[in-house]
Amino acid sequence: MKARAGLFVDEKGLALAVLSGRGTVDCVAFDAGENLGPLVAAELDSSGYRRRRLRVGLDRGLAVIKVLELPRAEGSNLGEMVRFDLDRHVPFPAEDVAYDWRLNPSSADGPLRVLVGACERRRVDQALGLVREARRLPATLSIACHDLCGLLPRKIEAKRAVWAHRHDGRTDLVFLDRRVVLLSRTVPAETPHELVREIQRSLALLQWRDCEALWISGDETERFLSAPSLAELGATVSAPPYSTDACALVESLPEERYGAAVLALAVAFSSRRPRIDFLPPALRPRRASPGQLVTAAMLAIAALLGLGVLGAQVWQRERYVTRLSQEIKRLDPEVKAVERLAAEVAQKKRLVGALRAVQAGGLRPLPFMLDLTALVPQDSWLQAVNMDTQGVELIGQAGTASALIPALDASPWLERVEFTSPVTKIQGKEQFRLRGSWERR
Length: 441
Fold this sequence. Notes:
Number of domains: 4
Number of strands: 18
Shape: rod-shaped
Strand content: 25-35%
Low-confidence stretches: none
CATH topology of the largest domain: Nucleotidyltransferase, domain 5
Radius of gyration: 55 Å
Strand order of the largest sheet: 3-2-1-4-8
Structural class: alpha+beta
Number of helices: 10
Largest sheet: 5 strands, mixed
């Protein structure tokens, strides 16, 4: 539970409720007088309230709440119509009025029903000055009894309910459709019978035949709950069905000015957008409108979709790369075998090319080599045979190297056979190097 603070302002003084983040509430009341702002600031600091903004609720007796019926007209400025019609219902000059309005539920073929709240501008200025002296900024400036619905759970069984809250010798009547405030009144009902009469008069203003539930809270609750005269309304009479969190907090409030303390707690639990908010638009916290929220949501969805598409593409690419890597690993042995075969083929192609080049140059190495094996004596062997277009060079060893020259000269292949280097003797054999030219035919 986050920290909250609510300030209830009436002509008799103030009531401040500070809700800590641990779920405990501190409530203190101040009598009307001077220098209330520093007292509020000191109480907020001592309670550990560090938030900059403070919610303020005015007593119902400081404001005029009306339900106006306006004709449905296309193209008309509803705000101007409310302003024009409001002048007939407020007891103070139009230039000194601070007001706000909201549409009430109405039938499609009937007139528009508008809930309008108005108060003197000096009341607004006093409340704002009090907040400034407390070194805070205002979050809302609402009607305190309208904020009582903030103590209810999100879902309630009663569709039409009347909430009678007593404080400081008077009763605030709040008429709810589910959790929506349709009208409120402050009445000097001292007895249950007077309360029933005032409620019946108010039902006619709302065009209600009856109500489903009557909730009693605040001062002298037991005296009113046990009164048999309340049965005339034909509604279930009980204490308000507080939410789980609010119930424990309401029970922990001090007995002194208990009704005002409940209102201060209700202000702390109030909505960030109360139905009637006297706070000037320039001082209201910046909050996104429904259209802006929809636009932001659409942008967020578009961004998420874009990220999703990008992520899907990246995932598909990674998956493709993974499959490709696996296929490469699988084919790697076959590729290496093909590369070895290609290397062998290339080597053989080079050999074939060399042979073709030799043949193209007029050389016939194979027949010459066949005859050479017959010309070389048995005790001789060749270490190297180098052939070109001019002749052939033979390197090897023989028992008698000089016997090779007449044998090679007598062959049909060579002529002018001679040693190209001196004959040396190694291990009983003569090392020779000789060269002969191709015989011209």
